[in-house]
Amino acid sequence: MYGDLDPLVEVDMTPKSSVTVTIHSEGRTVLKTVNLRWSLRRLKEMVAEFAGRPPSMIRLYHLQVQDNQGMNFMRHNERSLLNYRVEDGDEIHLE
Fold first, then answer.
1. pTM of the entire predicted model
2. Mean of per-residue pLDDT scores for the chain
3. What residues does 74 pair with on adjacent strands?
4. How is residue 4 annotated by DSSP?
5. What's the burial of 5, exposed, middle or buried (CB within 10 Å: 0-12/13-18/19+)?
6. Alpha-carbon gap, residue 40 to 26, rounded angstroms
7. Which CATH class name applies to 18-94?
8. DSSP sequence for 51-83
9. Whether the Cβ atoms of residue 33 and residue 20 lie closer than 8 Å to each other
10. First to last CA, the chain
């Protein structure tokens, strides 16, 4: 019948809920899967175990590997990783 067409493709627009990032600290690296809904504070808590420092003493920098725009200081503890536009393959650097 006129007007009834099967879809050409199915597109899933659901955003990812987690990604894998590389965390760098003092010459060591580790791959971690992080939830994009986590706050920066939660990421610092997870990274503190790896770094051996309390979260309050950690400063994090985000490097978007695909954009190659340089590192950005992650300063807002209550902001989600989704808002920081963290993607698969990105790097997190500790200072």
1. 0.81
2. 92
3. 60
4. -
5. exposed
6. 20
7. alpha beta
8. HTS-GGG--EEEE-TTTT--EEEE--TTSBTTT
9. yes
10. 65
